TrEMBL record, chains A, B:
Annotated HTH marR-type domain residues: 22-77
Family membership: Belongs to the GbsR family.
PANTHER family, A to Z: HTH-TYPE TRANSCRIPTIONAL REGULATOR MJ1563-RELATED
This protein's record includes keyword Acetylation: no
GO molecular function: DNA binding; DNA-binding transcription factor activity
Classification via Gene3D superfamilies: Winged helix-like DNA-binding domain superfamily/Winged helix DNA-binding domain
Organism of derivation: Pedobacter changchengzhani
Pfam family, one: MarR_2
Origin superkingdom: Bacteria
Keyword entries, A-Z: DNA-binding, Transcription, Transcription regulation
Name assigned to this protein: HTH-type transcriptional regulator
Length: 168, 168
DNA sequence: ATAAACTTTCAATAAGTTTTGAAAGTTTAA
DNA sequence: TTAAACTTTCAAAACTTATTGAAAGTTTAT
């Protein structure tokens, strides 16, 4: 496969993965484009390469900055803004984990905590089933949260190592 | 909070989490409803409790069965089908991981493998950046895959344990 | 102060996804 | 075999989310 074709396919693959995981397809594609660009790109270049409108390009670039995956760059003597993606896979994984933990996991933990304060008759099987489900899911969610917390703190990428062997 | 209110809130929370992670909101709500039901429910009961149509209830119940999260049950002397959810949090997590690994991670690994066979000039910086991005992401994805593989094989729930402490 | 270069916003529209409900299909009991 | 009980299908409609593009806003150079 030639480079130009491979680039298109990479952008497509990354976009598809994003949309399957609840991330805007175009945002993932813009990210992919920047990931494989040696140079920082302008809004204009992103628009042209992905065939998207100015508004769309601008909005997704801003979102990528909020997610901590892309940075603005200024070039000497240039009026335009340039956008550049962090290329380190481990750092990308951490940023995404951090953002989704904050946006999604934490609110769920909060709800589950409230739900475990439910009042009811301990002898009622409906009540017992409810409490058990909520408590089991809470435990799992808390452990996911703690693991992510540890992952976020780790400077080193244990995932590139062989920690998974420990699970036998 | 009273049981009835808590149940509604649980269904809502689970549905929201599902939709944020690319899972049909209603499917997640049907799952939540069955998770907190002591008894297996009929299509009719699901329709009524979630205020959804027959077609919608039927389709989401079937999908939950495909995902391995819900089973059909037959009751002696009853003509209707009853649906019952596996209540074990660890088993739910494993089923979801298994299904998404198969549907999403594996196709991405396949694409990445193809992309690493790209032809080009080793001296071209564009080519080098591309190869490095693809190769780094491949490594990460393979490790995620291996870790999931191990998780799926594990009968025991290492997540309920304290494995996360190992990451320091 | 002006105007050109550039970025951001947002209402309208398009695209994508989910839901409905009635009709078709299937199973069971008599 | 019939018909009632139940399940499945699927085209149309409703709903949700993403995209466009022109107008408004901002910055910079002169």
């Amino acid at each position: 496969m030639e480079l130009a074709e491979a680039k298109l396919k990479f952008i497509e693959t990354w976009g598809k993965l994003g949309s399957e995981w609840g991330i805007n397809r175009t945002m993932a594609q813009v990210h992919a484009l920047l990931l494989i660009s040696t140079e920082a790109l302008t809004t204009e270049e992103v628009m042209e390469m992905l065939k998207i409108s100015r508004g769309n390009a601008n909005m997704n670039l801003r979102d990528l900055i909020v997610w901590g995956l892309v940075e603005k760059q200024h070039k000497a003597g240039e009026r335009k803004e340039f956008f550049f993606a962090d290329k380190d896979a481990w750092s990308i994984a951490r940023q995404v984990a951090k953002e989704r933990k904050k946006r999604e996991l934490e609110p769920v933990l909060k709800s589950l905590a409230e739900l475990s304060n439910v009042n009811g008759d301990e002898k009622d099987p409906e009540f017992k089933t409810f409490k058990k489900s909520v408590s089991d899911i809470s435990k799992l969610a808390k452990n996911v949260d703690k693991t992510l917390e540890t992952m976020l703190k780790a400077e080193e990428n244990w995932f590139f190592g062989s920690i998974f062997k420990m699970f036998k």
